[in-house]
């Protein structure tokens, strides 16, 4: 048995954390969640588990009759996409800097602090034709959502479709163990998804006040099934998840085009593809019940289902196949998981350490990305060992180029 069991005042917690750090604050946060009256069976904690806002990152929370918006988070639909190409390592140019520049030009990334009327560098100014075409599939339902919730209208919606964002979001060119080239990226529903998440977390808090429900953490406010807020939230989240998936597809097409333009060479970028969420809601059947499963920093890993578990910007990543372990509600980790806050990493990690950790990777090597340096994360190999009963590794990837916002 790979998991350990923690008891709470309510449901137990099964954690796949043997051999990896598991902070006390995250344990307490999981106990707070498990103490809620609508948890189905138990809460599952993945090996990348760490403290989050309201709900723990790296948690799988099955519920009956209610949903906790914070157990999805505000980066709704955040996830990974990877494609295997027909290129081999020997076909890549020796100098990857022009390729990185081309990708950075093709995909808006980062954010302009205090833009004040100027275009944010992480959003589109003039919407490209491919983005406008992709938005057509989202616009009708978005208009319906805006009619119900006017606060969603003045958001970065189409302006963020096909853009990367900041923080731990990235685009990478990787090599697998056979020397084949992969493109991989990580992003979600951007500004509009954040607004949806924040908006409904506040609505849930107001519901708790109205019903005089006291919680160990106000951010664990929930929406009761059957209520208008519950139905509106599920509808909005499903739309945001669709936005996130499409966002990754638009970016991936732009990355492929950017690499082709630099190499002046055609190649097949559809040999294999995986596109999976790791912050989302799903209606599933577990242990005899139809339940809502919220995964915050966790990937669904049903038997045979493909997923992606990335390391940090200097570590290995993995394309995996689910083993369908019912104890984890068919889930696995979404990455390595942080061991240092961004603030702490910037204080403790030197530029020299960052340079050593990213040696051989064409990427930013400045102080503004220290918070994403490999030592800010758990050891990805230990994380994989802790969940060897949840997934099997199909491909091992190592990045040679990394774009960060």
Characterise this structure.
The protein is an alpha+beta fold and 405 residues long. The chain is built from 8 helices and 17 strands. The protein has helices at residues 24-34, 97-106, 129-148, 190-210, 228-263, 342-348, 351-357, 380-386, and strands at 4-6, 13-15, 43-50, 57-63, 66-67, 79-88, 170-176, 180-187, 223-224, 272-277, 279-286, 289-296, 298-300, 306-309, 316-322, 331-333, 391-404. The strands form 4 sheets. It has a 7-stranded antiparallel sheet. Helix 3 (129-148) packs antiparallel against helix 5 and helix 4 packs antiparallel against helix 5. The chain is globular, with a radius of gyration of 21 Å. The mean pLDDT is 96.
Task: Set down the secondary structure blueprint.
Layout (H helix, E strand, L loop, with lengths): L3 E3 L6 E3 L8 H11 L8 E8 L6 E7 L2 E2 L11 E10 L8 H10 L22 H20 L21 E7 L3 E8 L2 H21 L12 E2 L3 H36 L8 E6 L1 E8 L2 E8 L1 E3 L5 E4 L6 E7 L8 E3 L8 H7 L2 H7 L22 H7 L4 E14 L1
Parallel strand pairs: 2-3
Antiparallel strand pairs: 1-2, 3-4, 4-12, 5-9, 6-8, 6-10, 7-8, 7-17, 11-12, 13-16, 14-15, 15-17
Rounded to an integer in angstroms, the radius of gyration calculated over CA atoms is 21 Å
What is the overall shape? Answer: globular
Helix percentage: 25-40%
Give the strand order, joined by hyphens, for the main sheet: 10-6-8-7-17-15-14
The largest sheet, given as strand count, sense and whether it forms a barrel, is: 7 strands, antiparallel
Average pLDDT over all residues: 96
N-to-C series of helices and strands: EEHEEEEHHEEHEHEEEEEEEHHHE
Number of strands: 17
Strand portion, in percent? 25-35%
The stretches of 5 or more residues where confidence is low (pLDDT under 50) are: none
End-to-end CA span: 40 Å
How many helices in DSSP terms? Answer: 8
**Global structural class:** alpha+beta
